[in-house]
Design brief:
It contains 4 helices and no strands. The protein is an all-alpha fold. It has 2 domains: about 80 residues, no CATH class; about 40 residues.
Length: about 120
Amino acid sequence: MAASIAPECNEIKEKYDTCFLKWYSEKYLRGNTTSNDCEELFTKYKTCLNVCASMLLSRAVTIAVAVSRTALYWRSSNNPANIYHQVVLKEKGIDSMLEDARKSTTKEFDAETLRRG
């Protein structure tokens, strides 16, 4: 039998699979479709999967928050690397060139956009 998608649920899945195969071959195929012999095991397995899914979602959210915080830090002006780059750009006179390029690019883009209508 195949393993569960959540390794923590392998044991209960194995019990459910065994129960289901027994019910299917001994009862269902002989016309007895009214019994629910494995319902309790199936409910336990679903509960296990839901708990594992919740834990995975919680971990994913924690990771996403950490990544977002890291990205915000690296973009912030308080980041030592950004402060260093700002100082170097200013020392070399590149900061004013960048600002001029940004202004002219915006004006050119706006003018081109207006011409196109």
